[in-house]
Amino acid sequence: MSSRGLYDKIHTESISRISSNDVQVDEYLSPRTKDNRMGISLIIPITDIERNYRRLISELTSIEPGLFLYPFPDLHITIFDFLRGSGLYRRDQEIENRFSKICSKIQQCPPIEVVLCGIVFSPAAGLIQGFDNNRLIEIRELIRASMIEEGMKNDERYRSESAHITFARFRNRLENPGALCSFIEKNRDREFGEITLSRFELVEHDWYNRESQKRIIKEISL
Length: 222
Known about the structure:
Blueprint: H1 3-19, E1 38-45, H2 50-63, E2 67-69, E3 76-86, H3 93-104, E4 112-121, E5 125-131, H4 135-149, E6 165-170, H5 177-186, E7 191-197, E8 199-206, E9 215-221
Antiparallel strand pairs: 1-3, 1-8, 2-6, 4-5, 4-7, 5-6, 8-9
């Protein structure tokens, strides 16, 4: 499925639920909940859209102040979850070396252009839409094939088909669901900019990719 079709499907299926305040409150964002989930992922750090992003979250905060909005340094595109975030995670040098070997195979790929345009909300999160002509799907398939060759288990949470950036989650029930839905509708085609992906990071990180919790295992340059 194309990214445009995927995002439109999310929007169509979700907007009425958000309007009805049928959202998935993230219990781990409560200060009363301990969150020790960690994992290993191949990600793309976002560095080029800071001004446009800060304008977006300023506008959103005025409409729905209870949203959890990612700090700019934590923004990323996930290419592949090698070990999905779990409280059972334990650091293992051997497994890191095996993941690094697999990631080395994608260095032959040319840089990837991604157009960041529009936002969409599911009942669980807000996304900035990314369009990459399905180049990341090709890289994900290369990784999956390499893992089969290496006899390694695939631990993906879901089979990603897009180049989206998760930027918001629901910390509480919404105060102004109608106003939020109106904002979403008005910004379905909001332009953030075009970025060239030439550096990936294999990282150990927490569920939200907090910069303070992130450890770079390997950098991959295209």
